[in-house]
Amino acid sequence: MITLGDYLLVSGILFSIGFAGVMLRRNLIIILMSLELMLNAANLSLVAFSRFRVDPGGLPNYNAQVFVFFIVTVAAAEVAVGLAILVALFRVRQTTDVKDISSLKF
Amino acid sequence: MDSILPWIILLAPLVSAAVITVFTLRWKTLSSAISVVAVLVSFTNSCLIFALSTGAAAEFTWIGIGGILQVPFGLTLDPLSRTMVVLVSGVGAAIHIYSLGYMRNDEGKSRYFAALSLFMFAMLGIVLANNFIMLFMFWELVGFTSYVLIGHWFYRDAAADAANKAFITTRIGDFGFIIGILMVWMATGSVVFAEIAPRMPALASHSTFATAVALLIFCGAVGKSAQLPLHVWLPDAMEGPTPISALIHAATMVAAGVYMLVRVAFVVQTSSTALLIIAWIGTITAAMAALIATQQNDIKRILAYSTISQLGYMIMAVGLASNDAAMFHLFTHAFFKALLFLAAGSILMMLHHEQNIWRMGGLSRRLPITFLTFAVGALALIGCPPFSGFFSKDAILALAYEHNTPIFAVALFTAFLTAFYVIRLLVIVFFGKPRSDIARESHESPAVMTAPLIVLAILATLGGFAFFARKFLALPVEKEVATVVPVLAIIALIAGSGLAITLYRNRASEPVDLELLRHKFYLDEFYRWLIYWTQELLARASAFFDRWIIDVGAVGGTSRGTWSIGALLRLIQVGNLQGYVFLFGLGVVAIIYFAVFR
Fold first, then answer.
1. What is residue B60's DSSP assignment?
2. Burial level of B538, CB count in 10 A (0-12/13-18/19+)?
3. Residue pair A59/A65 in contact by the 8 Å Cβ criterion
C-alpha cells in the first residue's frame, strides 16, 4: 500500500534534487530545469494531498488539483520568459555560466 | 445722560482718529480740524463731568469666562480720575491747537493728527479704566501711539531709531507689569480695581509675594515714566515733533506711570519693602537725571532730563506713600513742563530746528512772549516761590523730611541741581549775545502758538496755589516741619541759580567739562554693550546648536546612519546567483523553523 508519506517522500527528494541543482550547477539552462523540477515536486505533493483527503461525499477534494493546473500553466509561461531572457543574455555575453553573470552587485 | 458723558470723552478722539485714517487723509486741514474738534469735545465734556461730579458711567461686560475671569468695560469716575481727565484733555487741547501752528506745513499732517487723536483716546482710557486689563490695553496703545508720533519723521534715521528704542524699552517694563497684573488676578481672583482693593490687606501677610507684586506693577511705571534703569528712551524720544515731546513725553504719557501707581496704590502700599525701593528708585532717578542735565547742550534733551528728574520726585512721593503729594506735583508739572516744551518748540520753529543752546543766545529781545512764558515755566520747574512748582516740590520735600532723611538730602541736592541747570539753560538761550546768524534773525512765533503758551503760563503760575489746586486735588497736609523745608529749598534754589548765573553769564562755550555727565553716565554705551553681548552670545549659542546639533547631528546623522547601514548591507550583495539562492534557502528554513517549531 502506497501511503501519503511515500508520495511526500518522493516529492521531498525531487525538491531537494531541484534545489541542489539550482544551488550547485553553473549552467543557467540546467538551473532553469532544476527550478521546474522543484515546481513539479510541489505539484506531486499537492496531487497526493488531494487524493488522500476524501470529503464526506466519498469524492477526493479537488481544490489542490485545480491549483496544480495553475502551477503548470504559470511554470510554462515562466519557462518561456526565462528561456527568452537566457537567449538574450547569451547574445550579449556569449555565456550561460552564472559565475560570469555577476555584474549586479556592489 | 450722565452715564453717557464719560463715554463721549473717551470715544470722541477715537472717532476722530478713525475718520481721519479712513476718509480724510488727503485733506490735511480738514483732518487737523476734526482732531482739534474731537479734543475740544473731550475737554468740554471733561469739564462738565468735573463740574457735575458725575460718579457713574454705563458699563458692560467685555470678557466673561465663567467665574474665572470677569472683565467689564467700565469707567472709573472718582475725584482723582475726574481731575486727571480735565488735565489730560486740557493740556491735550492746548497742544492740539499749538500743533496747528507747529505742523502747519508738514507733509504727514493728517497722519500726525490721527495719531494725536488716537493718543488722546488711549491716554484718557488709562485715566478712566476701572480694571487692570483695560488699563493695560490702553497702556500699550499709548506706547504704540507714542512710537508712531516719535517716529513721525521716520525718514530720519534718528527718529526711527528713537521710536524703536522708546517702544522696546517701555515694553521691557510692561513685561513686568503684565506679570504683576496676572499675579494680582491670581491672588485676588479679580482684575477690577474696586474688587481688588478690599482683598489686598489679606495679602499683606505674604510679604514676599506682596513685594513681588508691587514691584512688578511698578515695573510698568518704570518703563512708561522713564525711571532708572529704563529712562534711556525719553531723551531720545525728543527726536519727535516738539508738541509731541510736550504732550506725551512731558505732561501726559510719562505721568501715566505715576497716575497708575496712585490708582493702584492699594496694591503698591501692601508692601513697605516695595515702597522703600520705589522711593529710592525715584530719588536716584531724580538726582541722576538732574546731574546729566547739567552737561547737555540740546535744549529739548535738557528738558527731557528735567522731566525724568521731576518724575523721579513724583515716584519718590509715591514711594513715601503720599499719593496726594505725587498727584499735586504731577498736576503742576503737567502745566509747566508742557509750557516749557511748547516755548522750546516756539524757539526751535523760529530757529529752523537748531537745538544746540550754544547757537542761541540773546533771544529774550527777539521772542519776548516766548521768553516770558519760558521763564515762568523755568521758575515753576526750579520751585521759585510764587510759581506752582514751589508748592508741589515743597510738599514732596516736606514729606521726605518727615519720613526719610537720606532721601530728603538727595532730593534737596536735586533741587539745587535743578535750579543750576534750568538757570544755565535760561541764561545761555535768552541772554548774552546771539551766537549764530539764525539766532540773530529770529522773530516771534504766530499767535496760534503763543496763545497756548500764555494760557499754560497762567496755569503754571496759579497751579500751585491752594485756592486753585484744592478744587482739583486733595492737597497733602503739611505738618509743623513746613517752615524748615521751604527755607532749605529756597537756599538750594538760590545757591543753584547763583552758581549757574556766575558760571554761564556772557559765555560763548561750555566752561565746565564733565565727561561722565556729558555721556549720561555711559548708560547708553553700557546698554549697547549689554545688548551686543547678549545678542552675540545668543547668536553663538544658536549657531553652535544649528551647526553641530542640527546640521551634524540631525541632518548629517540621518544621512550618515543611512549610508552606514547601506554600507553594511551591501556586503551581502556578492553578485553570485547561487549565493543568493543559498541565503534565500537559509531564510526559508529559518521562517519555517520559527513558524512551525516555535
1. E
2. exposed
3. no
What is the distance between the alpha carbons of residues B116 and B103, in angstroms, rounded to a whole number? 12
| C-alpha cell read off for B413 | 541736592
Question: pLDDT tens-digit profile of B388-422?
Answer: 888 888 888 888 888 888 888 888 889 888 888 88
Is the CB of residue B170 less than 8 Å from the CB of residue B143? Answer: yes
CA distances from B336 to A3, B277, B344 (A): 122, 28, 12
AA letter at A26: R
- B576 three-class SS: coil
Task: Return the amino acid letter for B358.
Answer: W
Q: Of B180, B273, B271, B266, give the one whose Cα is nearest residue B223.
A: B180
Grid coordinates of B191: 482684575
Write out the three cell numbers for B257.
506711570
- Kindly state the helix (H) or strand (E) to which residue B61 belongs, with its residue range: strand B60-65
Q: How many CA atoms are closer than 13 Å to the CA of B366, on its beta-carbon side?
A: 23
Burial (CB count within 10 angstroms: exposed 0-12, middle 13-18, buried 19+), residue A55: exposed
* Closest chain A CA to residue B571: A106
Q: What is the ipTM of this complex?
A: 0.80
- Please list every residue in chain B whose beta carbon sits closer than 8 Å to the beta carbon of residue A31: 577
Report the gap between the CA of B571 and the closest CA in chain A (Å).
8
Short-list B129, B147, B137, B387, CA closest to B259: B129
Q: What fold characterizes domain A4-98?
A: Helix Hairpins (1.10.287)
pTM for this predicted structure: 0.76
- Contact A105/B577, CB-based, under 8 Å? no
* pLDDT reading at B582 higher than 90: no
CA distance A28 to B350: 107
CA angle at residue B163 from B220 to B428, to 5 degrees? 95
A37's enclosing H/E stretch is helix A28-52
- CA–CA gap between residue B547 and residue B109 (Å, rounded): 50
| Per-residue burial over B490-506, b = 16 or more CB atoms within 10 Å of its CB, e = otherwise | bebbeebbeebeeebee
* Cell numbers at B147, concatenated: 512710537
Give the gap in angstroms from C-alpha A19 to the nearest C-alpha of chain B.
Answer: 9
Torsion-angle region of residue B307: left (phi > 0), alpha (psi -120 to 50) or beta? alpha
Residues of chain B that touch chain A, judged by Cβ-Cβ distance less than 8 Å: 570-571, 573-578, 581-582, 585
Residues in chain B: 598
Determine, for residues B578 and A22 on separate chains, whether the beta-carbon distance falls below 8 Å: yes
Task: Give the angle subtended at the CA of B134 by the CAs of B129 and B136, to the nearest 5°.
Answer: 110
C-alpha cell at B598: 516555535
Question: Given A22, A99, A106, which is nearest B581 (Cβ)?
Answer: A22
| pLDDT tens for the 106 residues of chain A, in order | 888 999 999 999 999 999 999 988 889 899 999 999 999 999 999 999 998 888 888 888 888 899 999 999 999 999 999 999 999 989 988 888 888 887 776 5
Identify the DSSP state of B404. -
| Backbone angle region of B70, left / alpha / beta, with phi > 0 → left and psi within -120 to 50 → alpha | beta
Place of cell 525715584: B282
* In chain A, where the domains are located: 4-98
Determine if the peptide bond prior to B476 is cis (ω within 30°). Answer: no
